[in-house]
Amino acid sequence: MDFSFSPFSLERMNCLHSFPNLHLSTDFVHDYSFFLSLKIQHSTQPFSSTPYHHLRKKCYSVASNSSTSLRRTTNYQPSSWDDSQIQSLNTTSSLFVLVLFYSLNYFYYISNIFTQGDVHEKRREKLKEDVKLLIKVKNFGDQLELFDSLQKLGVAYHFEEEIKYLLNLMKFLEEKLRMEFNEDIHVMALYFRLLREHGFEITKDLLVKSYKDENGCFKPFVFHNIKGILSLYEASFLAMDGEDEIDDAKEFALKHLNDFMRSNLSANPLLAQHIAIAWELPLHHRILKFQARMFIEHSHHIKEINVDSIELKLGQLDFNMTQNIYKRELKEILMWWTKISNIFGGKLNFARDWPVESYLLAVSMAIEPQFSTCRKELAKAICFVNVIDDIYDIYGSLDELQLFTDVVDRWDFATSKSLPEYMKICLSELFNTVNSLACKIMEEKGLDILPYLKRAIK
């Protein structure tokens, strides 16, 4: 089975030449743009603990222009991204209906501006209000299911107050919830996972007692609840050090999910699909927006999801609107990196040219749309980290690196006179970027973050 997508399947990222432009719509659009279009193969085979294959640098010695020594370089391939193609991505969320015509040397400018972005924003606000009403009328079990769906759709950030309030209420009424759902391992595992994900203190005993009896044996009903076992498997990734019983539950879940996949694959292919996805990467390790796309795309094939549900419509709309923000930010990062690369003038060709990958990593750390500045500045920092890492690991001599480190420690570019040209250029742009960010935050927030930025770099 072939499902979208893995954020790190870089070999499959040659899709920029064929995807359509994004058109915002309340219907989900298959917009195969940059990292959200990547492919991944979901196996339905039993779980394997085979380790991942890690990318490795291959170093070669090449002649240096200096008379000091041979320098090492890597076999980094040129960037596979077409900057012009990325810059041409459609990021317009507004449709302006303008009628302009010419007659007898006069321009008649008739404008009827219909801002589609405003329409989508109003539509999203209406759907958010509908979801809030939906939350209020559901029981505890249904509320937990809804919270889980909102997270998978990547829209839970719109309902942080409501989710926090109701999880607090459930925690206060925990004994009632435990008695009501004592034999529903799915609900109890979901409750345990959501509370831990949101930072609540919850003892492992609540979860353990839901699937084990007083003798420490698994309760009979657990063996027949594959959906509950899958939820238990997902919850087990929230275990803390020393919670051996939950680790044992993970092994139990793996065994029985394996057995199910071997014997009942054809009987319930949709559940098998869920299991295969969880095996490949559990929810706790996934990036929300990648999970959201997968959840939306599969919604028409999964019986538990109502394709006309309010939360799904909200997820579709929010996904498209957020993706436009990501595209605009990526364009800015590429323009910045192109400017930096021109300043480098080919003197840092040995280093990684990874602006898109750096932005992707920044997105994974600050995924919600309101953190735009954070994502862009993180992406810039990661670009510099890649370059400096290659200077230290690959290209620089020991004497040069000692001088380079001293200049950074002093944070004084005037002391860089004895450095080679490629290091001077790197330090100059690093200092400029860091100081620019510090000035920006001082102007906007009145905070002096420069000492903290220096400390982080040192």
TrEMBL record:
Look up keyword Flavoprotein and say if it applies: no
- Tell me the Gene Ontology biological-process terms attached to this UniProt entry: terpenoid biosynthetic process
The UniProt record lists the Terpene synthase metal-binding domain at 346-458
State the InterPro entries in the record: Isoprenoid_synthase_dom_sf (IPR008949), Terpene_synth_N (IPR001906), Terpene_synth_N_sf (IPR036965), Terpene_synthase-like (IPR050148), Terpene_synthase_metal-bd (IPR005630), Terpenoid_cyclase/PrenylTrfase (IPR008930)
Recorded hits in Pfam families, A to Z, give: Terpene_synth, Terpene_synth_C
**Which residue ranges does the record assign to the Terpene synthase N-terminal domain?**
115-276
- Cofactor(s) it depends on: Mg(2+)
What's a Gene Ontology MF term here? magnesium ion binding
PANTHER family found in the cross-reference section: OS04G0344100 PROTEIN-RELATED, TERPENE SYNTHASE 12-RELATED
The protein depicted here goes by the name Uncharacterized protein
